[in-house]
Design goal:
The complex is a heterodimer. Chain A is an alpha/beta fold. In chain A, about 30% of the residues lie in helices and about 20% in strands. Chain A folds into 3 domains: about 70 residues, Thrombin, subunit H (Beta Barrel), CATH 2.40.10.170; about 270 residues, Rossmann fold; about 100 residues, no CATH class. In chain B, about 35% of the residues lie in helices and about 25% in strands. Classes of the chains: A alpha/beta, B alpha+beta. The structure holds adenosine-5'-triphosphate and magnesium ion.
Chain lengths: ~475, ~600
């Protein structure tokens, strides 16, 4: 085989592609380093990016982010840059839109950059982490009241096809605030595999709410190359880390849709002929996803934070599918959208029972939200779980056998969905309002049923004791 | 002469090197021109497969590798307690000082501070014969850990010299042992290869429960000191919270928490909490008995694989001082996944779901390092191991859960259904088990009360009956139940709600002393006895359930221990009186 070898810039240039398989290129080359960025020039002169994912003494395996279509063994040129993949960072990223591999697509000029950061980041030293504890009020009762978000948390939305997660994300972006603080969130949006319509909708929405000047978007569309999706969330998180750890800002990162990300991962794994794990996804998917999700957090004594809201659609609404399953094993809880609630017209259709915020206890209570918050939410959980169980049983064996107590719970479940979970897209409830709706819904129960709340709190907050708040 | 070779392949955290004849399996190697650390995990011809403990981006074939002649070892000596280390025992606070808030590669600080001075109280007499495990003296490592300085396991001879009382660093010679013509210097620290269990004289069967302050565990599914337990459960079912709770409240001398491939924020939370909380029944900070080994999910997976060995070796070291040590590994599944990665890269023949065929062997070797032992110097020490398991899709039939279940004696099965109802700890009382209970009966009867076994059985039977009745109701509807059966359901509900459910975050409820646990259960069972009586005499169940005593019982878990103790008698008589009055009312009604 003919081998051309010449130096271009600092890198090595080759045109000896040995084999092309799926999204991978195998190139005969010496002196290549693991993980380095590769520029691929197609026979028609188009430039693509790749990354070395395996290297031996004379062969480098390259994953090409824009895919390998139109490449051919003879005329493809490869330039090894000798550097890991980097993002050019500066405050000028704000207000801008990039494609999934970081090229400007909003018609504006190339932003001026002050530094270049490795997109893979580095793990935060666990000793340096501050435990997240600042409550973010989203104005959405089922989140704030039952599964609150805190600064530095990673809290994904598990959605299904056709469910209104876009509306929910937009409402969170519009309403999220830390109470008593003027600081606004910087929004970093990493889109993987969403449609052009959806991308446009988000952008217009952000412009309408006036957040676009503190937003940066990295957009990989459904029709864009799949492998590029492996890069997109890393670009987004690198920008987020720059804003938070270098510029001390509070950053909200939206990553949507992680399902398409995972599919790209599977595609590469299949092309490498690795032993597949569950449902064809690679065995290292847990570790790979963790390298994304663990980039949320706060530093002790640091002023910024990275909060992540990844969105994923559960294939066939199946929560045991590896994508939601492994995500749930890494993130600090999950908000689960429920098709049944959606059918019954409840918005946001978040089912609180399987949802969870693991940082709730750190983020709420006296001085943060209100001292009755935790116990009230425990009680609401209990009553809703009971009510749903009774409602389901009644659907099978009829309502005739229901006791008075059963009926209380049954009605509670309906009312809880109608008044607590359900709210308008523009309804921004503060935490007091959320908690007082909760108390009103508990009012019909005899107090002995409210065993999850201390009597002193019942005295102070129960509407029956005349102290209605809100 | 160290063995040298050349990198021939790099893929993720795995490196192949050639021309390396003479390297040993599990030898530590320096990889590449930066000399980052790796470990030999396979040899074939003159090739070595190496797992690298740090980020490998930028490594190239052609770069050198160099053997160190030593296996991966940990430093054992004072200065471990209260600290956080990564999977290969690099002190994370020192790394922060060297590199800032993010982990950078190529840094190899010593695990133990070389400058720190410890006050040695020598206890051994020069001229005596000593061998591995003998105590030469001690230093106060923390207010609660008296760190005994042991003759390293592989040393014996005549004690020529012992240092005077005074301050020494971990590297100062504090004793000299002569063996034939050879003189061996002993220091406050020594090192030990992590994959090699530390020796002891013999194992003895565990017979003492590890008191955890968790009602469901202490009552139904206790683990013995020196025993093994597994906590499998889907995501968010409470494995980590349970293990954190054990680290805080279990009655051990030293607690080691291995965060193996899990979240960084959790570890930040744990260290905050144990810095604030006191060891139960004392005024000492929990941090003074705790050691954290942390290799989060985004840190290199080879160091994750090593982390459980680092943890258990340190546990054995404190065991050898005669202490009872608990080790929590969260999560053993992430360690098994690291093994799977290695197996895949070595192109070994995979077993089930891609895990290596030797998965069970590795797990068995790990759990076998737990135990209650007579140490080399004749003392008794123990290592209790509690491993979290994270089954994909919460499916317990997967290989890691199944292999683990064959090895451990306690099974705390965490359950999605309970967790979704916020019933915590979400330990399923019907499927969980402890195989230690029988051998510990004596202990309970001696230290808690003579009727412990009976009380426990009665409560468990009630829960089993509930399950049967529920099945009946599901089939035939609630109308078929008799009043007595309804009572059974209500009483089982009370056991679940007022006894089993225990909040790890409530300042009082989080820890329930065994005596309180016993009396709580006893009161509920007493209530049941009286209520059954009343139901037989036709007292309506609704009236019984709205008695004020029921509410008191519901809230006894949040009574501080002293207050609870004082009110036990009163609650007992209230049960008699309040129910007695209802019975009288019915009798009078009948007479009228
Ligand atoms: N004993 C408890 N008391 C109160 N809440 C609890 C208790 N145990 C668990 N929880 C709740 O459940 C949540 C999840 O628990 P935890 O983080 O321990 O789950 P896990 O099984 O370790 O999940 P993963 O496998 O994803 O790490 C906690 O954040 C807490 O809200
Ligand atoms: Mg956990």
């Amino acid at each position: 085989m003919k081998s051309q070898y010449k130096r271009v810039y600092s890198g090595l240039s080759f045109s000896t592609v040995k084999e092309i398989k799926g999204p991978l290129l195998f190139v005969e080359a010496k002196g290549v380093s693991f993980g380095e960025l590769v520029e691929v020039t197609t026979p028609t002169g188009e430039e693509r990016l790749g990354q070395v994912i395996e290297v031996t003494e004379d062969i480098a395996s390259i994953q090409v982010f824009e895919g390998t279509s139109d490449l051919e063994v003879e005329k493809t040129r490869i330039r090894f840059t000798g550097e890991p993949v980097k993002l050019r960072v500066s405050m000028d990223l704000l207000g801008r839109v990039f494609d999934g591999r970081g090229r400007v697509i909003d018609g504006g000029p190339e932003p001026i950059h002050v530094d270049e950061w490795n997109v893979h980041g580095a793990p935060i030293n666990p000793y340096s982490r501050a435990h997240p504890s600042e409550f973010i009020q989203t104005g959405i009762s089922v989140i704030d009241g039952m599964n609150p978000l805190v600064r530095g948390q990673k809290l994904p939305i598990f959605s299904g096809s056709g469910l209104p997660h876009m509306l929910l994300v937009s409402q969170i972006v519009r309403q999220a605030k830390v109470r008593g603080k003027g600081e606004e969130f910087v929004v970093v949006f990493g889109a993987m595999g969403i449609t052009a319509d959806e991308a446009r909708w988000f952008r217009e929405d952000f412009e309408e709410m006036g957040v676009m000047d503190r937003t940066v978007m990295f957009v990989n569309l459904a029709e864009d190359p799949a492998i590029e999706r492996l890069l997109t969330p890393r670009l987004a998180l690198t920008a987020a880390e720059y804003f938070s750890f270098e510029q001390h800002m509070h950053v909200l990162v939206i990553l949507s849709d992680m399902t398409y990300y995972a599919e790209a991962l599977r595609e590469v794994s299949a092309a490498r002929e690795e032993v597949p794990g569950r449902r064809g996804y690679p065995g290292y998917m847990y570790t790979d996803l963790a390298s994304i999700y663990e980039r949320a957090g706060r530093i002790r004594g640091g002023r910024g934070s990275v909060t992540q809201i990844p969105v994923l659609t559960m294939p066939e609404d199946d929560i045991t599918h590896p994508i939601p399953d492994l995500t749930g094993y890494i993130t600090e809880g999950q908000l689960i959208m429920d098709r049944d609630l959606h059918r019954r017209g409840v918005y946001p259709p978040i089912n609180p029972l399987p949802s969870l915020s693991r940082l709730m206890d750190a983020g709420i209570g006296s001085g943060k939200t209100r001292k009755d918050h935790k116990q009230l939410s425990d009680q609401l959980y209990y009553c809703y779980a009971e009510g749903v169980a009774i409602r389901e049983a009644a659907m099978i064996s009829g309502e005739a056998g229901l006791t008075e107590r059963d009926k209380l719970y049954y009605n509670f479940a309906d009312e809880f969905e109608r008044r607590f979970i359900n709210q308008g897209v523009y309804d921004d409830r503060d935490i007091e309002e959320t908690l007082s709706i909760g108390w009103e819904l508990l009012a019909p129960f005899p107090e002995v049923e409210l065993a999850r709340i201390d009597p002193s709190l019942i005295k102070e907050f129960h509407p029956r004791h005349g102290l209605r708040r809100g | 002469m160290p063995v040298r070779g050349i990198i021939s392949k790099v893929v993720g955290p795995f490196v192949t090197a050639k021309n390396v004849i003479g390297l040993h399996m599990y030898e530590l190697v320096r990889v590449g021109s930066e000399g980052i650390i790796g470990e030999v995990i396979g040899l074939s011809g003159d090739n070595a497969f190496i797992q690298v403990y740090e980020e490998t981006v930028g490594l190239r074939p052609g770069e050198p590798i160099e053997g160190t002649g030593k296996p991966l070892s940990v430093e054992l000596g004072p200065g471990l307690v209260g600290r956080m280390f990564d999977g290969i025992q690099r002190p994370l606070h020192v790394l922060q000082g060297m590199a800032g808030f993010f982990i950078r590669r190529g840094l190899t600080p010593n695990a133990l501070d070389r400058g720190e001075k410890w006050f040695l109280h020598p206890t051994a007499e020069p001229g005596s014969k000593v061998s591995g495990g003998d105590v030469l003296g001690y230093v106060d490592e923390s207010p609660v850990v008296k760190h005994k300085i042991l003759v390293p396991p592989d040393v014996k001879g005549v004690l020529e010299y012992v240092a005077l009382e005074g301050e020494y660093t971990v590297e100062d010679d504090i004793a000299e042992v002569r063996w034939g013509g050879e003189r061996i210097c002993v220091k406050l620290m020594h090192s030990w290869p992590v994959r090699k269990p530390r020796p002891y004289r013999y194992k003895i069967p565990p017979d003492t429960p590890l008191i955890t302050g968790q009602r469901i565990i202490d009552t139904f599914f206790p683990v013995a000191k020196g025993g093994t337990a597994a906590v499998p459960g889907g995501f968010g079912t409470g494995k980590t919270v349970l293990q954190h709770t054990l680290a805080k409240y279990a009655d051990a001398d030293v607690a080691i928490f291995v965060g193996c491939g899990e979240r960084g924020n959790e570890m930040a939370g744990l260290i905050d909490e144990i810095s604030e909380l006191k060891i139960p029944g004392t005024d000492q900070s929990l941090l003074d008995r705790t050691i954290l080994i942390v290799n989060t999910s985004n840190m290199p997976i080879a160091a994750r694989e090593a982390s459980v060995y680092t943890g258990i070796t340190i546990a054995e070291y404190y065991r050898d001082m005669g202490y009872s040590v608990i080790l929590m590994a969260d999560s053993t599944s992430r360690w098994a996944e690291a093994l799977r990665e290695i197996c895949g890269r070595l192109e070994e023949m995979p077993g089930e779901e891609g895990y290596p065929a030797y998965l069970t062997t590795r797990l068995a070797e790990f759990y076998a390092r737990a135990g209650r032992v007579v140490t080399l110097n004749g003392e008794e020490g123990s290592v209790t191991v509690i491993g979290a398991v994270s089954p994909p899709g919460a499916d317990f039939s997967e290989p890691v859960t199944q292999s683990t279940l064959r090895l451990v004696k306690v099974f705390w099965a965490l359950d999605f259904a309970l967790a979704h109802k916020r019933h915590f700890p979400a330990i399923n009382w019907l499927t969980s088990y402890s195989m230690y209970f029988d051998s510990m009966k004596n202990w309970y009867e001696k230290h808690v009360t003579s009727d412990w076994v009976k009380v426990r059985e009665e409560a468990m039977n009630l829960l089993r009956e509930e399950e049967e009745l529920r099945e009946l109701v599901a089939l035939l509807g609630p109308e078929v139940l008799t009043e007595a059966q309804r009572l059974t359901l209500e009483m089982a509900r009370m056991i679940r709600e007022y006894f089993l459910r225990q909040s790890a975050f409530h300042p009082i409820d989080a820890y329930s002393p065994p005596d309180k646990t016993y009396h709580m259960l006893k009161l509920i069972l007493k209530l049941r006895e009286k209520m059954s009586d009343a139901v037989e005499r036709k007292v309506p169940l609704v009236e019984l359930l709205s008695l004020p005593i029921v509410e008191e019982i519901a809230r006894m878990k949040i009574l501080p221990y002293d207050e609870f103790k004082k009110s036990v008698e009163k609650m007992n008589s209230e049960i008699n009186e309040q129910i007695g009055r209802l019975i009288e009312k019915v009798i009078r009604g009948e007479e009228a």
